[in-house]
Amino acid sequence: MATGHAPTASEYIVHHLTQLNTSGHAQENVIDWSIINIDTLFYSVLIGALGLYFLWRAASKATSGVPGRFQAAVELLVEMVADQAKGIVHSAESRKFVAPLALTVFVWIFLMNAMDLLPVDLLPRIGEMFGIHYMRVVATADLNGSLGMAIGVLLVCLYYNVKIKGASGWIHELFTAPFGSHPLLYPVNFLMQMIEFLAKTVSHGMRLFGNMYAGELVFMLIALLGGTATVFGFVGHVIAGSIWAIFHILIITLQAFIFMMLALVYIGQAHESH
After folding, report:
1. Which of 5, 103, 205, 259 is the most exposed place for a label (fewest CB within 10 A)?
2. Residue 10 pLDDT greater than 90, yes or no
3. How far apart are alpha carbons 149 and 48 in whole angstroms?
4. CA distances for 151 relative to 56, 89, 90, angstroms
5. DSSP 3-state assignment of 37?
6. Which of 62-66, 139-143, 235-239, 270-274 has the lowest mean pLDDT?
7. Mind telling me the catalytic residues?
8. What are 55-113's pLDDT values in tens digits?
9. Which pairs count as long-range contacts for 170-175, CB under 8 Å and 24+ apart, including other chains?
10. CB 216 within 8 A of CB 116
């Protein structure tokens, strides 16, 4: 932190929750369509490319013989996602795209979540050496990032609604479901459909954001404990940090799995007629 004194606990947390963005001034985690959070964009693209490299590496090194540990782990992951997609999306043609998409989503979100396991001050301190005074490295703990991915899932759902049902069939469904085909119910049905799309998208993104944001805050509080310059603070920091990191491995995996499963469920619903 670029301050002339040791930061207080509140200053430390606010600093670490401030995004590096295009506005030219510090800004905490809010939605503003005119501003781009550069740190979220950078780490999401970087980690996405890294995830694709891992998957490409596994595919290029795949062998029909006894697989290595890395290939075996990737094969188990691919089979798990394929089984989940098969049980939810019943169109074999759609699964050719949806299953790889779900796999990519799971790996991408897992790796972004896993950035929370790095020491809180590691990358921000490195950034300060290059004149970057604000940096958040967990893209999924940014509301803009998590909602952006949820909107991406919404767009895929809209695409399959039109592809499977046809434009006229989907428009007909918007005005006749869920309460039936009656002219007086058309406005109510349409409103309910819009509310459903909005609620699913917002809750999809907010669930991921809320869990990762809370986990990030806990790591910051544990880091503050280590900064008390006492033996008790250091020991408590190491013990609490280790316990929370081990528990957090479950959280980052579970949140990636939940986001992927909800994406499959929503896409599967787009294949169904009311």
Report:
1. 5
2. no
3. 12
4. 26, 20, 23
5. strand
6. 62-66
7. 203, 207, 211
8. 899 888 888 777 788 888 999 999 999 999 999 999 999 999 999 999 999 999 999 99
9. 173/273, 173/274
10. yes
SS3 content of the chain, % helix, strand, coil (to 5): 75, 0, 25
Say how far apart CA 236 and CA 225 lie, in whole Å.
Answer: 7
Tens-place pLDDT, residues 166-209: 999 999 999 998 898 889 999 999 999 999 999 999 999 999 99
Q: How far apart are the first and last CA of the chain?
A: 55
Q: How many CA within 13 A on the CB side of residue 143?
A: 13
Structure tokens at 249: 């491995």
Degrees (nearest 5) of the Cα angle 136, 141, 143? 110
Residue 257 CA to its chain's centroid (Å): 10
- Nearest-angstrom CA–CA distance, 167 and 178: 18
**Measured distance CA(54)–CA(47) in Å, rounded:** 10
Q: Note the pTM of the prediction, 2 decimals.
A: 0.91
Cis ω for the linkage preceding 178 (within 30 of 0): yes
**Res. 234: pLDDT tops 80:** no
